[in-house]
Amino acid sequence: MLGHHYTRTFLETAVASMNAGCNLELSYGMRNNVFMHIPQALVMGNITLQMLRDRVRPLFYTRMRLGEFDPPAMNPYSTLNLSAVQSPEHRNLSLEAAVKSFVLLKNARGTLPLRAQDLPSKRLAVVGPFADNPRVLFGDYAPVPEPQYIYTPRRGLETLPANVSFAAGCREPPCQQYSRAEVVGAAGAADVVVVCLGTGIDMETEAKDRRDLSLPGHQLELLQDAVQ
Prior knowledge:
This is XYL2 arabinofuranosidase. By secondary structure, the protein is mainly α. The chain folds into two domains: 10-74, no CATH class; 103-226, Glycoside hydrolase family 3 C-terminal domain (Rossmann fold, 3-Layer(aba) Sandwich). 32% of the residues lie in helices and 6% in strands. It has helices at 10-20, 38-44, 49-65, 88-101, 153-157, 180-188, 219-227; strands at residues 123-127, 163-167, 192-195. Strands 2-1-3 form a three-stranded parallel β-sheet. It is elongated and about 75 Å long. The model has no long low-confidence stretch (mean pLDDT 92).
């Protein structure tokens, strides 16, 4: 109604949503939100009582599965507390999920994986605006962990038995100010260069889209300078 003008009133929006199968509203905090007009739609015959029951049933089924209507002693979720947050078990599971979800698009000449036994003699350079900036590593709606648990690419690589150098090139993802000499100096003296590029929520987020998929600012130039 407000953005796409598909409907004209909250009542019409409620009816269209119900007919489309929507059963839960994320309102804007308005006291008079869309689904508050469902009783009026029911009275006017725009929706049926059976449709309302069909939409509500999965909501309450989920709430029952979560134990919301059970005494606390019967609800296993009631025993959880803040000790479960960032627990070793959960961090290990997150690490496992990260390792198993990596997507390798290309591996020219078998560059990867880097072998641990070869690293002591290697010089690694990690460059780019995502190389050592914890703030930009998390996506939209993602919880930000405690700083002690955040491993940027630079911090992670520095745990390896290798000589690691670092150059951001540009401090933030928009990459409007670019230091070519900084990147060329670090990359030119390295055996292996890890380039960390992207957009992050500074460039893309809910209701903030880009016109194209190209790397922002001078990031493409940074990449070319790092691998030449």
